From TrEMBL:
Name used for this protein in its record: Six-hairpin glycosidase-like protein
Gene3D superfamilies: 1.50.10.10
Superkingdom classification of source: Bacteria
Keyword match Transferase: no
Signal sequence range: 1-18
Lineage, uppermost ranks: Bacteria, Pseudomonadati, Pseudomonadota, Betaproteobacteria, Burkholderiales
């Protein structure tokens, strides 16, 4: 059974090349079809440039000029990296220990940080949080450029190069701006040309907020009105160069400005300006301002980059991304949904590299704006990271997975504190890896097998001794926790999960959640994979893991359909709406195992599908979830219909972002939607172990889906 379940469908680079059609996809043409073009002011069409560790979102001016308009109506305009973090002062000496409370756990007590709404709970939820970096705006006659000053907008984000070109009229005068982020470093490049620059009337403003107003959990605004709480100091000023040292509550970083055109930086230390943290870059000769802004700290020195070198770096990095990974081409498909599905796919591929291809996995809105205090929510990380494997970018998967390797000692210590073996991964944490207090956070468990799943994907792409050595401890310690957490009923010998715990939907009291279908299936799969890793390493099966696998509780059912949670019955039936769907993750997100019955899964899917209102009921990241299950069940027409949903709650903005339906004004760039979409489309086009023979096994064979795919790796 083990060999049948877990034998990877391994594709070497040579095999991949041989499998690709002789008539290769014109990748540049596919990507070019979905360039983002703005011809008017649309706050939902802000454009983000970046590299996974650094990102900048701009408006139609090519900078962040219209801050309030975009914040109120769509996507905030921010400058972020993954490594600058900030904590507010703690004058009361609040302790993390004050967030802890004993929770009964099968005859013993575990200290969980569940006191969310106490002074300590609020402080440690909000701190640390990412540090907002500088904001870049145009000023006209000394005031920030207004929307009524702007006309004639023609703006393009070239996805192939990652470069934004903005052409517009300012009070009737032309302005052309080029904006890009470096391919790997925290460097922004801007080149602006206008007669208004030559006259000195149009300048570039660089200013720095204190921090985020974290009392607003999702999409917090900047704090501008407390200038006394932070410092911006010009530590170097030279022709063509200035360094601004930033400090706020112990957070320190530098902003290195370099300009290649004749210009000068005017700061608050001069009579022209009285506001601290506020600078103007103005041309002294000519109609052009060309500058770079590099962000650095002690561990991340600022590279000496010019506008030209930054643009070249952006072009090279994006060319590598688009040419070395997977690609699909739906241009020959005659189904009317094909064009929108392709757009969502290509723009999602762009956004995932911008927001998630870094050394620390950020919150669910990536680097576009702050949510969940910027903290990593590890339960959805497989969606964010698995698509990198599927689309041929295993290096980017490993870049984020390296953070987990670094957190192993801390996670092992946390498991020991709680009385478990192995490693306890934090559900929600900042760069420091400390668990975040919350009424839900400590009870989430579906994050725990994720590192096993991801390590297995790396091995499928790189089946070497080096891969086993690099991730062997990660897999083993994660599996030890799975086996330790499962509670054995001494009377029956059955291992159960919970209570107390929260399952995927988080909607049921922790005291009532026992043996949720997906979590049990994931425990089974994770331990099976871990045993396979032991076999690859020449080790015998682990007896405790084998015992848990053999005696793990059955998946709960009623009337031939899977329940979400054991004992929570009657979720299907006449008059019921909005059935839960997390149990479908047991076949879709996960491959078929001996734990799942295919026909029971099919009946469950059909019941959920009907109660959700058929195709239009699938929105947000559940679009990917539903399509994964439909495809694995051999129902490609349904999978396509789910991915092609165009109802308002399933809307993808012009630049590819999607609002979270449960919080449309907070999580306005909800990236689990994009990631799950890519995971589903990648499976449908690239296949899975045991998929039907032939290309694109998850698409209908009705003649309307003439689809070409290359470079995709199949899921288990």
């Amino acid at each position: 059974m083990l060999a049948r379940l877990l034998l990877p469908l391994l594709l070497s680079a040579s095999a991949l090349q041989a499998a690709e059609p002789v008539d290769r996809i014109d990748r540049a043409a596919v990507v070019a079809r979905h360039a983002v073009r703005n011809t008017g002011l649309n706050p939902e069409s802000a454009l983000t440039v970046g590299n996974g560790d650094f990102a900048v979102t701009v408006d139609v001016t090519g900078l962040q000029t219209l801050e309030r308009l975009y914040y109120d109506g769509g996507l905030p305009l921010e400058t972020r990296n993954t490594w600058s973090w900030h904590s507010f002062p703690n004058p009361e000496g609040l302790r993390f220990e004050d967030t802890l409370a004993p929770v009964p756990f099968h005859g013993r007590q575990i200290l969980y940080p569940i006191h969310q709404n106490t002074p300590a709970g609020r402080y440690y939820r909000e701190n640390p949080q990412p540090m907002p970096l500088g904001q870049f705006q145009f000023t006209l006659y000394g005031e920030v450029l207004r929307s009524e000053d702007i006309a004639g907008i023609h703006q393009t984000l070239d996805l192939w190069t990652g470069i934004v070109t903005s052409k517009l009229l300012v009070r009737g005068q032309p302005l052309e701006v080029t904006t890009a982020a470096h391919g790997s470093a925290a460097v922004l490049a801007v080149q602006a040309r206008s007669p208004l620059i030559a006259s000195g009337d149009l300048q570039v403003r660089v200013r720095f907020p204190y921090a985020y107003r974290t009392s607003i959990a999702h999409k917090p605004p900047f704090i501008w009105e407390q200038p006394e709480k932070h410092r911006s100091t010009l530590t170097q000023v030279a022709p063509g160069h200035a360094r601004i040292a930033r400090e706020a509550d112990g957070t320190r970083y530098d902003t290195e400005l370099r300009w290649s055109t004749l210009a000068e930086l005017v700061s608050a230390a001069t009579p022209q300006l009285a506001a601290p943290h506020d600078y103007r870059l103005r041309a002294t000769t000519g109609d052009t301002i060309a500058f770079t802004a590099a962000f650095a700290d002690a561990e991340h020195p600022a590279p000496n980059e010019t506008v030209d070198s930054t643009l070249a770096s952006s072009k090279q990095a994006w060319r590598d991304y688009w040419t070395k990974g997977g690609m699909v081409d739906l241009s020959a498909a005659t189904d009317p949904r094909a064009q929108e599905i392709e757009r969502r796919t290509i723009q999602s591929l762009y956004l995932m590299r911008v927001n998630y291809a870094g050394s620390f996995p950020p919150a669910e809105t990536g680097l576009q704006h702050l949510s969940w205090f910027g903290k990593h929510n590890s339960e959805v990380y497989v969606f964010h990271a698995a698509q990198f494997y599927q689309w041929g970018h295993v290096d980017l998967l490993e870049k984020g997975l390296a953070w987990y390797l670094g957190q192993l000692p801390q996670g092992i210590a946390q498991a020991r504190k709680e009385g478990f073996d192995g490693v306890r991964w934090p559900k929600m944490s900042g760069l420091d890896g400390r668990p975040t207090p919350g009424a839900i956070n400590p009870y989430i468990i579906w994050n725990q097998p994720n590192p096993i799943y991801l390590a297995e994907l790396v091995y499928r792409a790189k089946p070497t001794k080096e891969t086993l050595a690099r991730y062997g401890e990660l897999v083993a310690e994660s599996a030890k926790f799975l086996a330790s957490f499962a509670h054995r009923d001494s009377a029956t010998g059955i291992y159960h999960l919970g209570p107390p715990l929260k399952n995927v939907s988080e909607s049921t009291s922790v005291e009532l959640v026992r043996n949720p279908t997906f979590e049990v299936a994931f425990w089974y799969y994770g331990l099976q994979v871990a045993q396979q890793w032991r076999q690859r390493q020449g080790l015998p099966p682990e007896p405790k893991w084998a015992d848990v696998i053999k005696h793990l509780a059955p998946l709960p059912q009623q009337d031939g359909k899977y329940l979400e949670i054991e004992g929570i019955r009657n979720v299907f039936g006449p008059g019921k709406r909005g059935a839960p769907s997390s149990m479908l993750l047991a076949l879709g997100y996960l491959p078929a195992t001996d734990k799942i019955d295919i026909e029971t899964a099919r009946r469950t899917f059909h019941a959920v599908h009907e109660q959700r209102g058929v195709d239009g009921g699938w929105v947000s990241w559940q679009m990917g979830q539903g399509a994964l299950t439909a495809a694995r069940l051999g129902e490609p027409e349904r999978a396509v219909a789910i991915l092609g949903n165009t109802r308002a709650a399933a809307h993808f903005m012009p630049s590819g972002y999607s609002r979270r339906p449960r919080d449309p004004e907070g999580a306005v760039a909800y990236l689990p939607t994009n990631a799950a979409y890519l995971m589903a489309l990648g499976l449908m086009a690239g296949g899975w172990d045991g998929a039907p023979a032939g290309p694109a096994p998850g698409f209908p064979k009705d003649g309307a889906w003439d689809l070409r795919a290359e470079g995709l790796l199949p899921l288990p």
